[in-house]
Structures are given as C-alpha cells and as structure tokens.
Write a structure and sequence with these properties.
Helix content: 25-40%
Oligomer: single chain
Bound molecules: 3-acetylpyridine adenine dinucleotide
Length: 552
C-alpha cells in the first residue's frame, strides 16, 4: 500500500532479488505477509545476474544447486550440465520469478541507501536511491555474501583508452575481445574461470597474477539423463540428505566430489605411495588427506603434490614455478574449480605476468605498467574480488536502537547471533550473515534454511502478538566466541592465510573469520534447538501485532 507521500507500507521489506530475495518473497506471501523486494539491478538473480563473465559457473552440482521448496519446480526444470553455467542459473531464476509470479512484488533498479528502526513503532523505514520510501515491521537483508566488488585503486585507472570491465559487473551485451590484447588482473575463482575463455576470444591474453591459486578440474560435462531422472525420483531424500552434511551437498548427482577419508593420512605414507596416489588420482590426490586439514606438515606435503601436478601440466618450467602456490596452506582459501586452467598457459597467445616479481604501478592510456615492464593492452578485465559478507550490509546506512549505525557497531568485526540477527537491531534479519555457514556450504540450502527459519519466527510472532524480536548481547557473544573457536582449529585462520573469509583482501578490514565453519548440519541442529527452546537468545516485545493474516 502506497500513501500520498509515496511511502509503501508492507509487513516485510526484503533487500535483494537474488535467490534469497526471491524465495523470501514467495514464502512470505504464501504465509499471508505482504512483502516487497528492492533490487539494485535491472534483473533478478543476484550473483547470477551480475557475474556474467565468460566461463562463470557454479561449483555445486546443478541438481543440488536448486530450490527444494517446490516439487513441481524440481520436476519441470531440466539441467543440462553437471555444474551449471551462469546463463543456465540466470534462466532458472527468471523462470522461478515468473512461475511464482514474484515480479509484482519486486522493484528493480532500486538501490537501498539507508534503513532506520523506529523504536516506538517497531518498524523499519527504508530509503532508496530513486527516492521511494518503504516501511515494514521487518527488514530482511538478502544482499548476498559476494555482492560488493573490491576495486583496487590503481593509479591512472580512468586514463586507460579502452574498456575496463569487472567480472562481477559484466556488461549484459558482452565485450568484444576479437583481435584484442586483453589484460586480466586477479586469479581467484573469477579469474581462473575466465582465463581459458578469454584466451579463446582474445588475440593475446596477459594474466596478471599476484598470488598463485589452488584450483582443481571441475570434471564438468553434460548431465547424464539417467542421473537427472534418478535425482528427480528421489528429490525428497536428496534434500533431506543435504541438511545432514557439513557442506549441504550429497554428492549423489553425477559430480565427482572428493570425499576425505578419515584414515587417509598423508604423513603415514611414503614418498612412493604419495606419488602412486598422484598418478592414479591426478589433481584430486592433493586434497584427499584428512590430516592436511589440521596438521601444517601434512598440509605442506599435500601442497608439494600439488606443485608436482603444476609442473606435470605446465610445459615451461619458469611459468610452472610462477603458478605454483607456496607459503600458505591448501584449503585455507576457497577452493577454485576450473576447466583447463593450467593447460591454458601452454598456449603461445597467453602470457603470465608474475606480480611477485614487480607489482602493478599504474594504468595508463595504453595499458598496465608493472615494476617489471609496460604491457600494451586494448581491454582490461578486473577479477579482483569482493568485500565479502559484510560489505553489502555496512554500505547501507543501517540504524538500529539509539540511532546506532551497523557500520560503527561492526568497526572491529561483525557480531551476529547465528548470523541471523544483530543485537541492537531489532526486527532486522540477515540471510547468510556472518557467523552462518553460508559461503562454506551450498548457498541454496543455506538460503532456504534461513528464509524458512525467519518465516517461522514471523509466524510465531504473529501468533503471539509480538511486534519486536531481538538477539540478546549474551547469546550473540556466546555464538561469536563459538564461531571463532572452531575456525581457530582449522587451516583457514593460519597466520599465512590471507583470504576473503578473513577480510584480508580489503585494506583496513578487521581480520575476523566471517563464516561458521562447524558445518551446515551442526548449524541446523543449533538453530532448530534454539526454536525448540522457545527462541533461546532472543527477546520478544508485545503490542498490537499489525500482522493479521491477509488473504493469500
Ligand atoms: O575473488 P578473489 P573472485 N593487484 O578474492 C587479486 C566466489 N566465486 O571474484 O590473492 C593484483 O578470490 C587477488 O590477488 P591476491 C567464490 O567463493 C565462485 O575470484 O589477493 N591482484 C586474487 O587473485 C570465490 O572465492 C565462483 O594476492 C589483485 C583476485 O584478485 C569468491 O567468489 C566463481 C589486486 C581476487 O580473487 C571470490 O572470487 C567466481 C591488486 N591490487 C567467484 N587486488 C564459482 O566457481 C586483488 N587482486 C562458484
């Protein structure tokens, strides 16, 4: 309902129309709440709307990286590959938006700039860039974990004569690389995935690498029809199974997923035995050792196997050495999956620029100048990452109790209870917030779990006439301590590890391990037990609910 002043009033304002926003709108509507999703882009799909760079692909099998809330949707949608490509996921999410008639509750090209909690009314007022205002009892930040690009401040970037494109803001109409000299900066997942594709399209590709990457072949391919039939016949078991695993993936859907066996310990093998495993399993032999997860010596032994594989694959020994990761543990950063990444460096029209021998000094009109040389370029592609997990939340002027701003409250690192709520910010929910499994698990399963948990909480409040819910400081402190304690038992917080999980890719960002590493299965047990215990760690305030069920 929009009043004369142009303010739209709903029960729930959702920020974002990616997977989390789409499902929120659908479920809330089914439960009789009014909701609107505000989306910055001019299309739905979130991550899969923005990251349309060549080669963009998900690292979770398609049959598992899909919604489980509708059996009809599961049965009617056909996936074509084991691991879905960006265009296919974007088509799927547009299908979801149409099939469930979600677009009528989505405002595109609407960037949320500020949201303020009214302590008297127990409502949030949300300001947007076009100037429209929305109020709702609840605010759900479905803003994604990897949605704010990290754009390095290279001197002279604006002077470059050709296009500078970001993998995470890729132009809808694509980029013409034919006959062009292309410089790609960044060798994380986005850079690694785009390298072989850019090499095919460009006249010459220069890959500017600051840190070599641990990446593994995806073993992607067409999805066998019998595998798809089998999954569709057993989807309920599959979905239930996902929730009992640490990563939200059963691995039963045609993808080759390496499982670590507890009894496979690299330090208990001889050199010959390790090499025999390497001969047999190739790249996958570098990540099957259980002791590598916790023992630095075992981890380094796995890293050495990895470097042997690089040398076996890359023909030029100097290039192989430059591509070999050293000095930080395998598994401390997000594993990358690729299609013929290392083989691409055997092409004559691909050159690796090892920035450890001299970094980027500036961009000028004609290319990139490093401390080693000037590289003449026609197009620059930046695959330089994201301000992960907190960036999309701290960029909005989110004001909770006493006018406190989330950005300030989190100045020394994010603190959230279960990654869902922040003390001092009542009626605000975050989907896949810091302290939840999120980026360490199958995001779709995490999203569904969070959206359903929040929706259940809203129904509970409606039934009890509550108008305000807020995490307590004690519960939040306890959870944050637990999240940190578990992370400290892993390689992911090793002093040599500088990952975006730790915020280490953003200058000045506090070094705090952001996701919950204890596993999705344990997290679900915890969030279920919180509810069973009468929403332990949350306080509720009453009043006229204003949340009477509306006719769906
Ligand atoms: O970003 P990244 P990403 N000068 O931060 C380099 C998900 N994802 O977009 O390592 C030179 O991993 C930086 O170098 P360094 C997935 O979760 C998934 O690739 O900091 N280089 C690094 O090489 C992933 O982990 C898929 O030394 C600079 C790169 O840029 C996450 O998104 C696909 C630089 C950034 O790597 C992020 O991946 C794509 C500078 N000033 C993304 N600044 C799937 O497959 C940064 N770099 C599902």
């Amino acid at each position: 309902m929009t009043d004369a002043a142009g303010t739209t009033e709903v029960d729930v304002v959702v920020v974002g129309a990616g997977m989390a926003g789409l499902y929120s709108i659908h479920l809330l509507r089914e439960l009789g709440f009014t909701a609107v999703a505000l989306e910055q882009g001019d299309g739905v799909g979130g991550t899969w709307f923005w990251n349309r760079y060549p080669g963009a692909r998900c690292d979770v099998p398609s049959l598992e990286y899909s919604f489980g809330f509708s059996e009809e949707l599961e049965q009617e949608w056909e996936w074509s590959e084991v691991f879905p490509s960006q265009p296919e996921i974007e088509r799927y999410l547009n299908h979801v938006a149409d099939r469930f008639d979600l677009r009528r509750d989505i405002r595109l090209e609407t960037r949320v700039t500020a949201a303020t909690y009214d302590e008297a009314q127990h409502t949030w007022t949300v300001e947007t860039e076009p100037g429209d205002t929305f109020t709702g009892r609840f605010l759900i930040m479905a803003t994604g974990c990897l949605s704010v690009p990290q754009i390095p401040d290279f001197p002279g970037r604006d002077t470059f004569a050709g296009p500078v494109v970001f993998t995470s803001m890729w132009p809808r109409d694509g980029v013409d690389f034919a006959g062009k000299r292309v410089g790609l900066v960044g060798t994380g997942s986005s850079g690694v995935q785009s390298t072989p594709e850019l090499a095919d399209m460009a006249e010459h590709l220069y890959v500017f690498q600051r840190t070599p990457t641990y990446t593994w072949p995806s073993h992607n391919g067409p999805l066998p029809p019998e595998v798809q039939r089998e999954a569709k016949a057993n989807y309920r078991e599959l979905r239930a199974g996902q929730r009992t695993t640490p990563g939200g993936v059963t691995g039963s859907t045609g993808a080759i997923i390496m499982q670590m066996a507890e009894d496979r310990r690299i330090l208990e093998t001889t050199e010959e035995e390790r090499l025999a495993v390497l001969d047999e399993m190739q790249w996958d032999a570098t990540r099957v050792w259980a002791d590598a997860l916790t023992d630095p010596e075992a981890n380094e032994a796995s890293c050495e196997l990895y470097r042997i594989m690089v040398r076996r694959t890359v023909e030029d020994p100097d290039v192989a050495e430059a591509l070999s990761p050293r000095g930080f543990p395998i598994g401390c950063k997000r594993p990358v999956i690729d299609s013929h990444y290392f083989e691409t460096f055997n092409r004559d029209d691909v050159t690796l620029i090892d920035l450890r021998k001299g970094g980027i000094e500036e961009i000028d009109e004609t290319g990139i100048r490093t401390a080693q040389a000037h590289v003449d370029l026609d197009v620059i592609v930046l695959a330089t990452g994201f301000d992960a997990m907190t960036g999309a939340l701290t960029r909005v002027d989110l004001r909770g109790r006493d006018g406190k701003v989330l950005r300030d409250v989190w100045a020394h690192g994010p603190r959230a209870y279960l990654g869902l709520q922040v003390a001092g910010f009542p009626n605000l929910f975050v989907i896949n917030g810091p302290g939840s499994p999120s980026v360490l698990a199958n995001m779709v399963v995490c999203i569904e779990q969070h959206v359903e948990w929040i929706a259940d909480c809203l129904v509970y409040m409606r039934e009890h006439g509550y108008t305000e819910v807020e995490a307590t400081v004690e519960a939040q402190d306890g959870w944050v301590d637990h999240v940190n304690a578990i992370a400290d038992t892993t390689m992911m917080t090793a002093p040599s590890c500088n990952s975006w999980y730790l915020g280490a890719n953003i200058p000045g960002k506090p070094r705090v391990f952001l996701p919950y590493v204890g596993g999705l299965h344990r997290y679900i047990e915890k969030t279920d037990s919180v509810v069973a215990g009468g929403y332990e760690g949350f306080t509720f305030a009453g009043g006229p609910s204003g949340l009477a069920p509306k006719a769906p």
